[in-house]
């Protein structure tokens, strides 16, 4: 009955009041103090519970704060996400069957950034990880609810939609067709155009004859916007262009991205068509102006760098006192672009674009081996950093460092 039960003490390792997570037949919880993670494992063949600390390899990134919340993301990868009291976000890739544990710290982009809450929302295809994020934007503290983008390896995203920026929005700025009529100046009709006052557009002659006051390859400023109509001027806020003869349906395209008021004053990273645009600052009205009209689908957000730092190579067998230096690095890369290497005070980008690639056209994601000479690294530095450089995927499947030893 509800009044007749037995509570057994299965472990002497204490727990905080933070809800645990359950992974298969394992209960995972923070130990009192919030700096250690314990796993309580039930082994059915022995009908016993066993305790094991799984935070030893992550203690260096846990110790400066306390664990405030943990959530379990089962799909697409087995990851335990941990929110720390100081607002940092940690992850533990965890697979008990293969004895695989890998800790990482996730530094979100922006100023004075803190993660204030995390949670998982399961869907039919994957588990969504959601954050509440605190940032300083344009001098004020803002709170946003954000979600982690899909992994490219899931095969659910077109390359144009990859999101490798923080607090990012995906926007289409593809142009639309329009017609013109005379009504106190040239009136442009375009259903649900989505343009705003002062936005810059360019017109093309897609059918018929352009009014003789309009020309291709010219910047025009939108004004007097209604839902389905607008007018044009040669300068921002200038006089509307008068109507002259023209016929047919034409099209426009823009180089201005709207609706980024949440990042006003911030320098943002821009990804379009599988390529990277130079960084821009979000204007006070939430717009981002590109340098050209080539973009259609864009991803705009705060830039961050994914970083992998190698450990010092282990000593050769039976050699206990020696000097060493790093000579060469070989990377096995899969479906990636934008990678740089840092060692000592040097920074070197791995080249993926060749003379055979046309400028202004995206290149394929690279899979294969890349080699880099580290001959200038000297005898003092015994580790290096591999860094994602830009809004692109970086997947390193293996790395080999060739080192030279000698001396006493």
The biggest sheet, with number of strands, parallel, antiparallel or mixed sense and barrel status, is: 6 strands, antiparallel, barrel
Q: What percent strand?
A: over 45%
Helical fraction equals: under 10%
User: Count of DSSP E strands?
Assistant: 30
Q: What is the CA-based Rg, rounded?
A: 28 Å
- Based on CA inertia axes, which overall geometry fits? globular
End-to-end distance: 74 Å
Secondary structure tally, helices = 1
Low-confidence stretches: none
Structural class determined from secondary elements: mainly beta
Mean pLDDT comes to 89
| Strand line-up in the sheet with most strands | 13-14-17-16-15-18
Short description:
With 408 residues, the chain is mostly beta strands.
Structure description:
Helix content is 1%, strand content 46%. The protein contains 1 helix and 30 strands. It has one helix at residues 59-62, and strands at residues 21-23, 26-30, 37-43, 48-53, 67-73, 79-84, 89-95, 100-106, 111-122, 127-137, 140-147, 166-172, 177-182, 186-189, 200-204, 220-223, 229-233, 250-254, 256-257, 267-272, 275-281, 288-289, 297-302, 307-309, 323-336, 339-343, 346-349, 366-373, 385-388, 396-406. The protein has a 6-stranded antiparallel β-barrel with strand order 13-14-17-16-15-18. Strands 1-2-3-4 form a 4-stranded antiparallel beta sheet, with no helix packed on it. The N and C termini lie far apart (74 Å).
């Amino acid at each position: 009955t509800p009044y007749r039960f037995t509570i057994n003490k299965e472990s002497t390792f204490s727990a905080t009041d933070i809800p645990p997570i359950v992974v298969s037949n394992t209960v995972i919880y923070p130990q009192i103090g919030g700096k250690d993670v314990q796993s309580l494992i039930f082994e059915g063949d022995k009908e016993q519970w066993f305790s094991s600390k799984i935070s030893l390899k992550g203690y260096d990134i846990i110790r400066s704060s306390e664990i405030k919340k943990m959530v379990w993301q089962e799909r697409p990868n087995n990851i335990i996400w941990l929110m720390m009291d100081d607002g940092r976000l940690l992850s533990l890739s965890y697979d008990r069957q293969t004895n695989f544990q890998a800790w990482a710290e996730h530094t979100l982009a922006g100023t004075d950034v803190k993660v204030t809450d995390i949670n998982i929302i399961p869907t039919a295809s994957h588990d969504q990880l959601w954050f509440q994020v605190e940032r300083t934007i344009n001098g004020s503290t803002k709170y946003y609810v954000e979600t982690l983008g899909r992994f490219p390896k899931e095969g659910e995203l077109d390359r144009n939609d990859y999101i490798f920026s923080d607090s990012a929005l995906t926007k289409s700025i593809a142009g639309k067709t329009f017609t013109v009529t005379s009504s106190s100046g040239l009136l442009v009709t375009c259903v649900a155009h989505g343009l705003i006052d002062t936005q810059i557009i360019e017109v093309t002659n897609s059918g018929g004859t352009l009014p003789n006051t309009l020309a291709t390859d010219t910047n025009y400023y939108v004004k007097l916007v209604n839902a389905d109509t607008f007018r044009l001027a040669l300068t921002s806020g200038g006089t509307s262009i008068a109507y002259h003869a023209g016929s047919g349906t034409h099209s426009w395209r823009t180089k201005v991205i709207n609706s980024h008021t949440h990042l006003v004053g911030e320098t943002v990273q821009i990804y379009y068509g599988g390529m990277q645009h130079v960084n821009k600052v979000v204007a006070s009205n939430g717009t981002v102006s590109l340098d050209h009209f080539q973009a259609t689908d864009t991803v705009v957000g705060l830039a961050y760098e994914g970083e992998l730092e190698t450990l010092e190579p282990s000593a050769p067998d039976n050699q206990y006192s020696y000097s060493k230096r790093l000579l060469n690095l070989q990377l096995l890369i899969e479906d990636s672009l934008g990678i740089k290497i840092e060692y000592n005070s040097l920074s070197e980008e791995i080249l993926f674009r060749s003379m055979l690639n046309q400028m202004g056209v995206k290149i394929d994601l690279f899979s294969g081996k890349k080699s880099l000479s580290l001959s200038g690294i000297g005898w003092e530095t015994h580790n290096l950093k591999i860094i994602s450089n830009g809004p692109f995927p970086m997947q390193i499947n293996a790395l080999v460092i060739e080192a030279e030893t000698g001396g006493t």
